[in-house]
Each structure stands twice: as C-alpha cells, then as structure tokens.
Amino acid sequence: MTDRTPTQPGSTAQPRRIATVGIIGAGTMGGGIAMNFANAGLKVTLVEAASEALDRGLAVVRRNYENSARKGRITPEQVEERMALIRPSLSYDDLADVDLVIEAVFENMEVKQQIFARLDRVCKPGAILATNTSTLDIDTIAAATERPEDVVGMHFFSPANVMKLLENVRGEKTSAEVRASVMAIAPVIGKVAVMVGNGYGFVGNRMLHKRGAEAVALVNEGASPQQVDQVLTGLGYPMGQFAMSDLAGIDVGYRIREERRKSGEDVPASWLDKLAENGRLGQKTGAGVYRYEEGSRTPVPDPQVDQLIADFRREQGITPREISDQEILERCMYVMINEGAKILEEGIADRPADIDTVWIYGYGFPKDLGGPMTWADSIGLKTILETITRFHDTRGGEQWRPAPLLAQLAQEGRGFVDH
C-alpha cells in the first residue's frame, strides 16, 4: 500500500507493506490519526479501554466527517465508507494481524511502557510499533519490548486530521526498514514527513518549549499574554503562544511539566499550572489563558486571568515592568534559533531545512519567511549572536548560552544554509 520512498537520500532500505493499522486511544489524537488512514482507504482498528471512551471517540470522528460533508469536501457516501473502515475494539487481541500500531495515549512513560509490553506479546512479527509521544524518550519506550528495532516515533500534530506535519523519530535501534516505512506512509495519508533523532521534545517541541518558557517569563515580568501573542501573530504566525496552548489543551503542557518534575528536573512553578489546577484547560473547557464564547474559537482576554497572573507575581515577589514588542520578538524567536543550532550540532536534525519543515507544517511558522533557520539567515547570524550573548550576560540561563555552531557560523560570516 505504501510507495517505495527511501527513508532519506542514500538509503537503500525498502519500506514494509502497510495495509492495516491499529490505533491505541480514541481521544482527540487517536481519533484524528484514525481519520488519516481511513481517508487513504486503509482499515483501522481503534482500541480503547472503556466502551464509553470508544463511543465518544467514534462520535467525534463521525461529527468531523459530517462537518466536512456539510462543507462539500466529501460526500455523505464517503462519510459512511470511511466510518466503515474504522473498526472499534476493546481488545488488544484485535491488533494481532495489523501491519502498524500507533499508540496515542497521554504523556506518561509508565503507561506507554505497559502498552508496548502488551503490544510486543500480541502483535505479529514484523509489525511496526509506533508511539505518538511528543516529548518522551523513544528508546525507553522501545526497551519495554523484545523488538526495539520495530519501535519508532510517529508524532502527529493536533488536530491530527488537519495538520500536515508528521515528525518521525528514530530510536537508537530502529531499523532502516522501519524508518523507510514510516517515511513512505506519510504521503499516502497526506502528510509531510521529517525524520528526526531521539531526544527530549525531538525538534519541534524542544524549540517550542524554549519559546514557551520565554513567553511565560515575559508575562511574569510584566507583559500580558495578549501582547506576547500579538507580537507572534504580527510576525505572521496564525496564532500566538498562549492561544496555541489553549488549542492544544493547558493540561497537555501541565502533564509534561509534571513528568519532568517527577524525573527530578527543576521546572519552576507557573501561573499556567494554576490554570490547569483550576480546570481552565483551554478551548475544550471554554476557558484557558483566554475565554471562549460558546461555539467560538476566538480568544477573548479574561480579567480573571489578569488577576491570577497579578497574584502569581505578588507570590513570587516580582514587580512588573513595561516590556517592548521588540524584546518579546527577540526573546521568543532568538531562543528558538539558538536551540535549533544545538539540535543541528547534536544531529537530532540532519539539515536546517528539516527544522524549517517541522516549523512550517507543524507550528504555523509563516511560510513566506522560509522557516526559523532561513529567517535567522535573513536577519543575519552576527546580529542574532550579539543579542543572544547580551541576554546571556544580563539574564543568564542555559537557554541563552550561545550554541557553538551559531557562534562559528556568525564569526565566519556564514548562514545556516551553508551548514
């Protein structure tokens, strides 16, 4: 069913045939991922632990298809054809013969390891075992199986039935054949794929989390969430950092921070944690950083959040100050560029163009600016290095330590394009 695209230039590995797919988890991500394969005419087995969750997930998938039909994008007959390709199940045994399984449950390492140990016992030899994790270590997940060569990351972006990017993640032991297979299936299901290395957050989320931490710090220091978002949308992003958090779900970031705290990382307290703890989880609850009118996705600034932020500043002993749009732009964007340079040094991304692709198709980076690394070249790496060095001298923090690759290219008068 797949084409014969190799993993990357120079690869001779042939992809495995993928005709049937299993998805673990019928939530927002799992349902959206199932739709991609059904759209391409592939049979999908959608597994959930409880019948209520399964029914709820299938109802959302049907509603999405019916909305598309109402808009004339597909016919009512196609709605039924695609729904018929998605087989609901409450048993892992129904995954015994699938060619590819994608786990799409919440970000918890223990839960994912339990699932992969179970898949290892159930799935046929040669089945590809993929995780949709957005941040967790692929090798640790693979270690729960006796076949780490068959384990790979397939990181879809939310909403998975809409977003174009597929960030495929190779583990230390992932076979060339499996890498070729997940790259080859991407165009079949209408995705643009990039193969990246394993490491916290991979490429996209690793850079996003640096930007997110800087955006939160800017609000701590005196900016408003809407000022930060307006600077980013002014650059050309379809939405800002905080509107995007509301779309993804405030609980998603909260769970990631809690996992990092559990693993011993020093992740500072945040007013975003307070939002999650107050049940303000974003668009799905009608309130997050912003509030949302019934049936609307338009973020509306909320005085309750302004008060919560003011209280947080007081608790932390912070006196707010005026922050310029230029400082917001430099801190949010240059921290990403610096991290992108480190990602290239470490071989997590093979090429600057791969980072650009991830950001254009997964995070809404303005296409006309060419992606973050191309945009950095247009600003001039010397200018960016000088600003990053100033932030490191005045603010400190590992995120502002200039990446050696950035420093080298800037000193040589070259750009990332020359790397």
Structural features, described:
By secondary structure, the protein is an alpha/beta fold. Helices cover 50% and strands 9% of the residues. The protein has an 8-stranded mixed sheet, with helices on both faces. Helix 6 links the parallel strand 7 and strand 8. Helix 8 crosses helix 13. The longest helix is centred in the C-terminal third of the chain and has 22 residues. The N terminus is likely disordered.
The helix/strand series, from N terminus to C terminus, equals: EHEHHEEHEHEEHEHHHHHHHHHHH
As laid out across the biggest beta sheet, the strand order is 3-2-1-4-5-6-7-8
How many helical elements? Answer: 17
Computed over alpha carbons, the radius of gyration is 22 Å
The count of strands amounts to 8
Major β-sheet annotation: 8 strands, mixed
| Outline type | globular
Residue stretches low in confidence (pLDDT < 50, at least 5 long) are: 1-10
- The CA-CA distance between the termini, in Å, is 36 Å
Coarse structural class: alpha/beta
The chain-level mean pLDDT equals: 95
User: Helix amount, in percent?
Assistant: 40-55%
Sheet-strand content, in percent, reads 5-15%
